[in-house]
């Protein structure tokens, strides 16, 4: 914030935190008129992926530099690793009134809003089976073990495409990968009723066909979150990253709400098959909207966003390298490392990656327990009927959806206030796990009242949503140009943990007749994860 204010206000050279002022080489600076002309001509062309509000911000910044008589170095100095060249990187600090600080900015309408819509439909397709499984089991005579097997098939596919989806998103852009994923999981949803047709049953292939259909739904949806991470890293200013992730996850969690509300209504009115036809057919208009709105990949913008600066500034700098002979050498040297491939083993070699993996494992353990066992807990442990259990299950997800957006605004404002990224990521993530740990210990009390139990469960799940501004945002902090691959890698560990958690709860509850051991074990895991997070996490770029 202070760097941007200093640049725009034309203060002395010492005010700049990310660039150096070289008064000995002022003769190398482009004259005021030519510099302004270059920026205006480039901005007028509206290069793909460069947002209009960013062009205005860069133009104003350029004019301010001229009036102040300053020259900004083309390369930031890092003690650990050279950063990519960014002109006017201070603009990413979101000075008051800048476009990236406003929810109504282009990044919101072109990136966050369509991402939230895609994730909403993803979760609607996922959760509808949890409602349809009851009449389906009655019709086909499936015991509880088969029902659990069918529901777990989604996670088989979902886990399998986490890392692949992230790699493809980093290589081809999240726009194309999400578009393909939407088409894939929509077709798979439409095919599930066919897997239960008389012809398939006559061939004795009903169960394998159902498992394959649900696994295919998971395969398509598995690419969504890694691609989301790629899109946010490439197209959203660093100062708004946590907000963008939080609002995207609001759509993700809202899918649970919408799915749980609409699915019973559709099922009662039209039957269970209509659920899969309805949600599957939503994919066609969704894909059309996504491809029409979502921005195409732009290497210059993505590289600048990865360096923590203004994507427009980077694109403009590359455009005028030929016009500024004094800066071309340093620009070329600093840009030469862009696009270098980073392997999975390289990602796994650093402690910062393991900080995210450990937290992701524990987060998913808790998340999938809440998702799959909350209605059962309300019904079996607290004595609510099925209808009340379903309604009460909506409340924590509603709080989580709201909390996701609030977490992003909180984190971005803390960083804008001068707190380091590392401090904010550690603090937010610690709170997101310590508060649920305390709430789960209350839930493990066998004498807890129903009202207190619902409150504690809502608090546990709601505060967990702060993690979107913690470990999720940290993925693009440490690996901005491999954000999709990093998300896929860490989420693979998380999904495997979720599968194990859901299965373990069933055995523990059957063995002990109580959910208390589950809550106590999960609370202990939260505490261990917080310790690991604070020891290993960093908000600085690593890869």
What's the topology here?
Layout: H1 2-9, H2 32-44, H3 52-68, H4 106-140, H5 144-160, H6 162-172, H7 174-195, H8 198-202, H9 206-221, H10 224-235, H11 241-270, H12 272-281, H13 283-293, H14 299-306, H15 311-319, H16 325-335, H17 344-348, H18 351-381, H19 386-416, H20 421-443, H21 450-464, H22 471-478, H23 483-512, H24 516-536
Keywords: Membrane, Transmembrane, Transmembrane helix
Domain Major facilitator superfamily (MFS) profile: 111-541
GO molecular function: phosphate transmembrane transporter activity
Which features does this protein show?
Growth Hormone, Chain: A, MFS_Na/Anion_cotransporter, 543 residues, single chain, 24 helices, mainly alpha, disordered N terminus
Radius of gyration, in Å, reads 25 Å
| Fourth CATH level, the homologous superfamily of the largest domain | MFS general substrate transporter like domains
Query: What share of residues is helical?
Result: over 70%
Shape: globular
| Biggest sheet overview | none
Whole-number total of structural domains: 2
Number of contiguous helices:
24
The residue-averaged pLDDT reads 75
CATH architecture of the largest domain: Up-down Bundle
CATH fold assignment of the largest domain: Growth Hormone, Chain: A
Q: What is the CATH level 1 assignment of the largest domain?
A: Mainly Alpha
Low-confidence stretches: 1-104, 304-338
Number of strands: 0
């Amino acid at each position: 914030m202070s760097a941007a204010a200093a640049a725009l206000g034309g203060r002395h050279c010492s005010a700049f935190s990310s660039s150096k002022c070289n008064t000995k080489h002022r003769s190398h600076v482009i004259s005021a008129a030519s510099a302004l002309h270059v920026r205006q001509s480039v901005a007028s062309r509206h290069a793909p992926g460069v947002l209009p509000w960013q062009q205005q911000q860069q133009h104003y910044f350029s004019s301010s530099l001229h009036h102040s008589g300053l020259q900004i170095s083309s390369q930031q100095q890092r003690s650990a690793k050279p950063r990519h060249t960014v002109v006017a990187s201070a603009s990413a600090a979101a000075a008051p009134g800048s476009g990236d600080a406003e929810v109504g900015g282009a990044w919101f309408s072109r990136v966050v809003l369509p991402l939230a819509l895609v994730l909403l439909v993803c979760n609607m397709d996922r959760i509808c089976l949890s409602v349809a499984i009851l009449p389906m089991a009655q019709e086909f005579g499936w015991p509880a073990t088969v029902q659990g097997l069918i529901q777990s098939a989604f996670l088989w596919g979902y886990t399998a495409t986490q890392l692949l989806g992230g790699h493809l998103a980093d290589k081809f852009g999240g726009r194309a990968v999400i578009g393909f994923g939407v088409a894939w999981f929509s077709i798979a949803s439409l095919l599930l009723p066919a897997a239960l047709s008389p012809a398939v049953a006559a061939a004795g292939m009903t169960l394998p066909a159902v498992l394959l259909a649900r696994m295919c739904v998971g395969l398509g949806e598995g690419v969504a979150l890694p691609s989301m991470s790629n899109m946010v890293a490439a197209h959203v200013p660093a100062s708004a990253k946590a907000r963008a992730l939080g609002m995207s996850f609001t759509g993700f969690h809202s899918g649970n709400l919408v799915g749980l509300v609409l699915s019973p209504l559709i099922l009662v009115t039209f039957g269970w098959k209509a659920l899969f036809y309805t949600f599957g057919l939503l994919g066609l208009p969704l894909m059309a909207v996504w491809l029409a709105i979502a921005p195409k990949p732009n290497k210059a913008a993505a590289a600048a966003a990865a360096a923590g600066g203004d994507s427009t500034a980077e694109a403009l700098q590359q455009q005028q390298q030929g016009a500024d002979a004094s800066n071309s050498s340093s620009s070329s040297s600093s840009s030469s490392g862009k696009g270098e491939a980073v392997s999975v083993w390289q990602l796994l070699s650093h402690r910062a990656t393991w900080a995210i993996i450990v937290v992701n494992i524990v987060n998913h353990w808790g998340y999938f327990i809440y998702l799959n066992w909350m209605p059962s807990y309300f019904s079996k442990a607290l004595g609510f009927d099925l209808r009340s259990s379903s309604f009460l299950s909506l409340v924590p997800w509603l709080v989580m959806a709201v909390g996701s957006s609030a977490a992003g605004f909180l984190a971005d404002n803390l960083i804008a206030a001068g707190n380091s990224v590392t401090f904010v990521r550690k603090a937010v993530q610690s709170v997101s796990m310590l508060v649920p740990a305390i709430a789960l210990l209350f839930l493990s009390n066998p004498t807890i009242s129903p009202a207190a139990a619902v409150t504690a469960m809502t608090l546990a799940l709601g505060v967990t949503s702060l993690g979107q501004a913690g470990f999720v945002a940290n993925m693009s902090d440490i690996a901005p140009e491999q954000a999709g691959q990093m998300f896929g890698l860490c989420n693979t560990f998380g999904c495997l943990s979720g599968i194990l958690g859901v299965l373990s709860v069933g055995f523990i509850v059957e063995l002990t007749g109580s959910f208390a051991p589950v809550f106590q074990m999960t609370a202990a895991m939260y505490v261990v994860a917080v310790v690991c997070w604070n020891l290993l996490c960093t908000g600085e770029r690593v890869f």
